[in-house]
Amino acid sequence: MTLLHTTLLFIATAVAEIVGCYLPWLWLKKDGSSWLLLPAALSLALFAWLLTLHPAAAGRTYAAYGGVYIVVALFWLWAVDGIRPTGWDLIGGAVALTGMAIIMLAPRS
After folding, report:
1. Mean pLDDT calculated for residue range 44-51
2. pTM over 0.85
3. Could you tell me the sign of the dihedral formed by the alpha carbons of 15, 16, 18, 19, in that order?
4. How many CB atoms sit inside 10 A of residue 83's CB?
């Protein structure tokens, strides 16, 4: 699996997880319809399935995924919540991506 393919799969996985958690948040915090729970459940099922598509060991995949999740969540903060990430947010995202790269790109025997 190429680095680009893996990264795109991580991004799709993060979006599925965020949508799956954001819709119940809308229901609970913003008086959204309880019908939001159905697409939320489907999105979380998609999230779990997408995680299985990674060829690396599950623990390594989850650890590396966390870095991508952080950056996608910061983009969500900006694009959906309308809050521009701070410089500190961006530095934290860069540190998380650096950690992800170390985990995924480390030489293996």
Report:
1. 96
2. yes
3. positive
4. 12
